[in-house]
């Protein structure tokens, strides 16, 4: 496979990127970039899937979320079918991702959000196998800016300027909405009834928690039996919750977690404890929402809002089923005929109103 064009794309982008510090600044657009990309796409056609050029006029901004990608893909395929063109590609953005022209934001070992685009050696060795990962942010490679701007007059007006797009660059959020889950052991008192077993379980759970917390951006083990998980990705939150559930089921006296999960606003602050800087939630509306939902989950399950469900990858989403009134009615919970649950803690705080979905964690 010829990857010299990919190398040219990345070299060109590195040289033409100009940081933008405010929305008033115009992004740097290099017409030479568009020419290189057109040659690159022509070269790759036949070696791997390459989307039709009509896709570019449908892209509204250089930073997209998953629902926007899906909506664009559906419109794109409908247009191909209307023109009686080949519409066999399941998702045109999968092709852009494989080609290194669509990136994602991922958290590295230092707990920093980093922009990741597939590099030339990735494309050379695995050009046709990579699938589009489930992430919160999808980033259009700057090499496509000129092509898309010519096809869509709205592209530049909606241009993301808080972060400079490019492989390896840091990603900094503005207003932060994240996925969170709050879990509790449903029968922890049974373990505490035996001091020896209780002490053994506390050490065991602490060790398992240290393994699972590496999956997510933020995790906390509170009061010995309560867990908080926060991340940009609902799939990573679900994976960490399932790992903890499997761990406590392996204990000599098997236990069950129950989790509530939601999507919402959260902010973090840094505190200093024993000479170390520790990042903790300073305003966690989403954690409070998850905590309201958690008591109504059955042992060994996760109960989540429809917003959390929408953030999950399709393979995870099918595990969840909408709840029915019978198993969920209880103190502080009212499930109406329209399947919208109203979860109220007290008369002084706003209730959580949402449709709920539940899945086993085993």
Notes on the protein architecture:
- The structure is a single chain.
- Residues 12-30 have low confidence and may be disordered.
- α1 (4-16) runs antiparallel to α2 and α9 (195-212) runs antiparallel to α10 (234-249).
- It is built from 14 helices and 14 strands.
- The chain folds into 2 domains: 4-157, no CATH class; 177-360, Nucleotide cyclase, GGDEF domain (Alpha-Beta Plaits).
- 35% of the residues are buried.
- It is elongated.
- The protein is of the alpha+beta class.
Named CATH topology of the largest domain: Alpha-Beta Plaits
Radius of gyration: 23 Å
Number of strands: 14
In N-to-C order, the SSE pattern is HHEHHEEHEHHEHHEEHEEHEHHEHEEE
- Average pLDDT works out at 80
């Amino acid at each position: 496979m010829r990857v010299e064009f990919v190398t040219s794309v990345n070299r060109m982008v590195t040289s033409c990127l100009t940081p933008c510090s405010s929305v008033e600044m115009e992004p740097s657009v290099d017409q030479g970039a568009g020419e290189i990309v057109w040659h690159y796409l022509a070269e790759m056609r036949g070696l791997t899937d390459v989307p039709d050029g009509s896709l570019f006029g449908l892209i509204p901004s250089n930073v997209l979320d998953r629902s926007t990608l899906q909506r664009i893909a559906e419109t794109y395929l409908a247009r191909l079918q209307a023109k009686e063109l080949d519409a066999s590609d399941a998702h045109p953005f999968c092709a852009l991702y494989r080609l290194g022209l669509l990136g994602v934001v991922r958290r590295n070992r230092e707990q920093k959000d980093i922009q990741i685009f597939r590099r030339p050696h990735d494309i050379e060795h695995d050009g046709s196998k990579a699938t589009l990962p489930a992430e919160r942010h999808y980033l259009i490679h700057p090499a496509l800016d000129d092509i898309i701007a010519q096809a869509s007059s709205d592209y530049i007006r909606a241009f993301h300027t808080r972060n400079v797009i490019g492989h390896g660059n840091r990603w900094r959020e503005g207003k932060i909405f994240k996925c969170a889950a709050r879990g509790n052991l449903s029968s922890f008192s049974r373990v505490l009834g035996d001091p020896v077993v209780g002490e053994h379980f506390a050490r065991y759970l602490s060790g398992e928690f240290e393994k699972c917390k590496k999956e997510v951006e933020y995790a906390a083990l509170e009061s010995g039996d309560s867990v908080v998980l926060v991340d940009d990705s609902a799939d990573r939150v679900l994976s960490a919750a399932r790992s903890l559930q499997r761990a406590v089921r392996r204990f000599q006296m098997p236990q069950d977690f129950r989790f509530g999960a939601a999507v919402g606003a959260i902010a973090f602050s840094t505190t200093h404890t024993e000479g170390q800087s520790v990042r903790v939630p300073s305003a966690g509306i989403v954690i409070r929402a998850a905590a309201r939902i958690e008591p109504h989950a059955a042992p060994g399950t996760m109960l989540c809002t429809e917003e959390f469900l929408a953030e999950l990858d399709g393979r995870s989403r099918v595990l969840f089923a909408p709840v029915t009134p019978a198993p969920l009615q209880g103190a502080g919970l009212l499930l109406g005929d329209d399947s919208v649950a109203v979860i109220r803690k007290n008369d002084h705080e706003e209730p959580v109103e949402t449709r709920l979905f539940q899945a086993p964690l085993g």
